[in-house]
Amino acid sequence: MTPAGSLLEARALHKAYGPTPALDGADFAIHPGEVVAVMGPSGSGKSTLLHCLAGIIRPDSGSVRYGTHTLTGLSDARCSALRRTDFGFVFQFGQLVPELTCLENVALPLRLNGTKRKDAERQARDWLARLEVDGVAAKRPGEISGGQGQRVAVARALATRPRVIFADEPTGALDSLNGERVLTLLTDAARDTDAAVVLVTHESRVAAYADREIVVRDGIARETAGAA
Amino acid sequence: MSIGHTLLGLLESGPRHGYDLKRAFDEHFGQDRPLHYGQVYSTMSRLLKNGLVEVDGVEAGAGPERKRYAITDAGITDVAQWLARPEKPEPYLQSTLYTKVVLALMTDRDAAELLDTQRAEHLRLMRGLTERKRTGDLADQLICDHALFHLEADLRWLELTAARLDKLAEAVGG
Question: Coiled-coil annotation: which residues (chain B) (predicted)?
Fold first, then answer.
């Protein structure tokens, strides 16, 4: 399968931890601007799949292609560089640096990519405003609510205008209203910037924000029947 | 729930009399609402007329004649199409889905595939409702939320059933 115009493509991915297979076959492609939910019960292999797609862990066999790069063939250093410039990440917990202000947290990936401080902070401020949390710019993560923290994390993930955003249970720790707002802001911003989103979740209400879903069960990932 | 399709599915394992059909139906699906004999015979008469079953034999007795019914090839195709077609998601769908899953197991069809097809149908509807929420006013959002919570409950049931298919197959002898 080589779908035309795909941005991220997994082929025959397998990964085991010791004798336990975590991922036992994954073949699919994701296109720019597409929000794809990766669903499945706990322990089904969803997070392993996300980590393989993002080049964080190497599969035992199979390949991941991102644009013109074969991630599975790159050195660790090259993979890290690509993650910094092209990928954004949102997790459930603990992703903000507690010693930095929220503004500095959002500016951090821009600074790491070589953007000058003033410009990085201006862009960070814009993203915080877009995520409706410009009021917490000067506060540290410990001084804000979980919902605000997650919006800051999304702003940070989007700040470098990544081409792929990996979100692992991004609203798992939030109440319904906050979770829905974060999902709306994340998916709207991603679609506006033509970024693809890989949204790992076990909740169908979260998956409903995606354009389609990939189901992982017992390590086997497949696109669901009739997915439009 | 489609009584006609359910009776047809029960006939796939072999010809049965109307009375046996009623007993099998009540045993597997009629916990709350057992079938009336009248429903069985009116349904069989309709299936007969539509060529989905045929009379396999008639036993004469002291009372009325007892017909034994067998499913036809057209009947088998009809059951297969019904099982493969996802149900329109709506509240309290579980009894129909449960019937389909049990019949799929009893007739050696792929019950996991049936559940996956249904899950895709539910998620398609949930995506539509979520999109409506994004653009709608507060009333729209509340109406959509009500539907979304019901659909989410269905999906949880689909997940649990998928995880218990092996046990269910043992229980129904599929």
Answer: none
**Beta-carbon separation of B159 and A209 below 8 A:** no
pTM of the model: 0.78
Residues 6+ away with beta carbon under 8 Å from B135 = none
Question: Is B117 close to A217, i.e. CB distance below 8 A?
Answer: no
Residue A3 forms part of a structural domain: no
Q: Which of B121, B127, B166 to mutate against chain A (most A CBs within 10 Å)?
A: B127
CA distance B143 to B128: 13
Q: Which of B87, B114, B123 is the best substitution to test chain A (most A C-beta atoms within 10 A)?
A: B123
- CATH topology assigned to domain B1-85: Arc Repressor Mutant, subunit A (1.10.10)
| Chain-chain contact of A204 with B126 (C-beta, under 8 angstroms) | yes
Number of folded domains that form chain A: 1
Rounded Cα gap, residues B127 and B129, in angstroms: 5
pLDDT, one tens digit per residue, over B59-98 is 776 666 688 999 999 999 999 999 999 888 776 666 788 9
Q: Residues A66, A82: contact at Cβ < 8 Å?
A: yes
Q: What is the CATH number of the domain that holds A31?
A: 3.40.50.300
Q: Is residue A228 part of a domain?
A: no
